[in-house]
Amino acid sequence: MTASLRRSLGVLDAVVIGLGAMVGAGIFVALGPAAGAAGSSAGLLVALGLAAVVAYCNAMASARLAALHPESGGTYVYGRERLGPFWGYLAGWAFVVGKTASCAAMALTVGAYLWPDQAHAVAVAAVVALTAVNYGGVQKSALLARVIVAGVLAVLAAVATASFAGAPDGRFGLGGEMTAGGVLQAAGLLFFAFAGYARIATLGEEVRDPARTIPRAVPLALGLALAVYALVAVGVLLALGPRALAGSPAPLADAVRAADASWLVPVVTAGAAVAALGSLLSLILGVSRTTLAMARDGYLPGGLAAIHPRFRVPHRAELAVGAVVAVVAATADVRDAIGFSSFGVLVYYGIANASAWTLGRRVRFLAALGLAGCVALACALPLGSVLAGAGVLAAGVVAYAVGRGRPGHPRS
Question: What does the pLDDT look like over 368-386, one tens digit per residue?
Answer without folding.
Answer: 999 999 999 999 998 989 9
